[in-house]
């Protein structure tokens, strides 16, 4: 490599880090909003990708489990600066919210979460945020009767059989139903995505993804090591979530609250606080890890929940061109997306609604917070601050 080429490579990597960090500090509003920020910065302003390739990349990341917006950012970073570019794009976009939520978790440990009134306000924020997410996702992912029926099946199953693996079973059944109902979907024309990752490396990434998914639970049982158990819980949650950050809530809740690793009050307080920070909602794992095992637990949880996103985007994009042209794959994906709506509604009822709306005044306040988000279009951090302040004021009424 010539000195000029090396200098250019380092300038490219530095540019990726600076731009992604700026996005990580300013990208409020959840995964759909993040994709809009990415489009404005990476496509319109810097022209790192053309419109068609960006749309194709977004389609792939919607197809994969995990945090879609983070995977899009990683993919753009890889296409711009190789593997190191993908890592830097991820770090820049993710670290601001990771640091903020770790600090919040450490502060929260000095409070009694069971009795703090402002914590109750944050739990009501979670009601408003998830209700808003459900309405938007239902309109997009379950627009017809067949997909509404799949969503209903997922809702009933997730509510009646609340086990750690029910979400995986629901997604598999939904994929089969989608294949059955929509197997004759026509594939649209696609351009070819240029991706600097070989198919051999991609296969290694996919093998590691499935290998960890199978081996970590075995190691957990064999060793009874707390750190391995923690890594396994977060890795499995990051591997099996379709639909983005809000849908990870029921998986994480079932991993950590019934087992006694943390209380439901602290869990929902952290979820409410996660709405106030920019960046991906999956950094909620950083808060959970910090509550369970301090900053070391936070770093482990963050690495574990985002590792599947890395392995899947690196492992699938070289094969995406042939995969996305298959109408059966498209039909299965439509079924999975519909099931995501039902899974999220089940999480909305329990634990969010059942532990947050305890009196008429709670419902009234949730309606106000929902209106702030859905109708008045106020920034999420304003809604969160209002929730915390309102929780304290309601205790005086």
Give your account of this protein's structure:
It is found in: Cell membrane. Its main location: membrane. It holds the Pfam family Chromate_transp. Keywords: Cell membrane, Membrane, Transmembrane, Transmembrane helix. With 397 residues, this protein is mainly alpha-helical. The chain has one domain (3-394). It has 16 helices and no strands. The mean pLDDT is 83.
Q: Summarize this, please?
A:
The chain is mainly α. The protein is 77% helix and 0% strand.
Query: Low-confidence segments, ≥5 residues, pLDDT <50?
Result: none
Q: What fraction of residues sit in β-strands?
A: under 5%
Shape: globular
End-to-end separation in angstroms reads 70 Å
Instruction: Let me know the average pLDDT.
Output: 83
The biggest beta sheet is recorded as: none
Total DSSP E strands: 0
Total domain count: 1
Tell me the Rg in angstroms.
21 Å
Provide the structure class: mainly alpha
The number of helical segments is: 16
Helix content: over 70%
* Run of helices and strands: HHHHHHHHHHHHHHHH
InterPro entries: Chr_Tranpt_l_chain, Chromate_transpt
Family: Belongs to the chromate ion transporter (CHR) (TC 2.A.51) family.
GO molecular function, one term: chromate transmembrane transporter activity
Keywords: Cell membrane, Membrane, Transmembrane, Transmembrane helix
Write the layout of secondary structure elements.
Elements: H1 3-26, H2 31-45, H3 51-63, H4 68-108, H5 117-141, H6 145-160, H7 166-182, H8 199-223, H9 226-239, H10 248-256, H11 264-274, H12 284-316, H13 320-323, H14 327-356, H15 360-374, H16 380-394
Helix pairs in contact: 1-4, 2-4, 3-4, 4-11, 4-12, 5-11, 5-14, 5-15, 5-16, 6-7, 6-14, 7-14, 8-9, 8-12, 9-10, 9-12, 11-12, 15-16
């Amino acid at each position: 490599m010539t000195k000029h080429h090396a200098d250019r490579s380092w300038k490219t990597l530095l540019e990726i880090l600076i731009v992604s960090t700026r996005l990580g500090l300013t990208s409020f509003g959840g995964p759909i909003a993040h994709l809009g920020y990415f489009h404005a910065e990476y496509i319109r302003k810097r022209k790192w990708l053309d419109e068609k390739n960006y749309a194709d990349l977004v389609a792939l990341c919607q197809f994969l489990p995990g945090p879609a917006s983070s995977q899009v950012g990683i993919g753009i970073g890889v296409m711009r600066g190789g593997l190191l570019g993908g890592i830097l794009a991820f770090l820049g976009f993710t670290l601001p919210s990771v640091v903020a939520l770790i600090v919040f978790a450490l502060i929260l440990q000095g409070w009694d979460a069971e009795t703090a009134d402002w914590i109750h306000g944050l739990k009501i924020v979670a009601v408003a945020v998830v209700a808003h997410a459900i309405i938007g996702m239902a309109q997009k992912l379950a627009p017809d009767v067949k997909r509404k029926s799949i969503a209903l099946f997922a809702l009933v199953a997730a509510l009646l059989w609340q086990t750690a693996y029910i979400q995986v079973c629901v997604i598999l059944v939904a994929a089969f139903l989608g294949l059955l109902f929509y197997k004759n979907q026509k594939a649209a024309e696609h351009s070819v995505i240029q991706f600097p990752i070989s198919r051999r490396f991609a296969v290694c990434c996919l093998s590691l993804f499935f290998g960890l998914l199978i081996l970590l639970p075995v190691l957990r049982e064999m060793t009874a090591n707390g750190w391995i158990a923690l890594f396994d819980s977060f890795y499995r949650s990051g591997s099996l979530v379709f639909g983005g950050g809000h849908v990870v809530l029921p998986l994480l809740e079932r991993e950590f609250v019934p087992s006694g690793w943390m209380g439901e009050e602290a869990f929902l307080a952290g979820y409410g606080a996660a709405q106030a920070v920019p960046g991906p909602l999956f950094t909620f794992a950083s808060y959970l890890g910090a509550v369970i095992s301090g900053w070391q637990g936070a770093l482990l949880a963050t690495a574990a929940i985002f590792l599947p996103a890395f392995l899947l985007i690196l492992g699938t994009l070289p094969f995406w061109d042939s995969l996305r042209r298959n109408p059966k794959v498209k039909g299965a994906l439509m079924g999975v997306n519909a099931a995501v709506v039902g899974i999220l509604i089940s999480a909305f009822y329990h634990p969010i609604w059942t532990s947050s709306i305890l009196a008429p005044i709670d419902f009234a306040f949730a309606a106000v917070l929902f209106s702030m988000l859905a109708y008045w279009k106020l920034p999420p951090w304003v809604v969160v601050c209002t929730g915390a302040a309102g929780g304290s004021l309601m205790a005086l009424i």
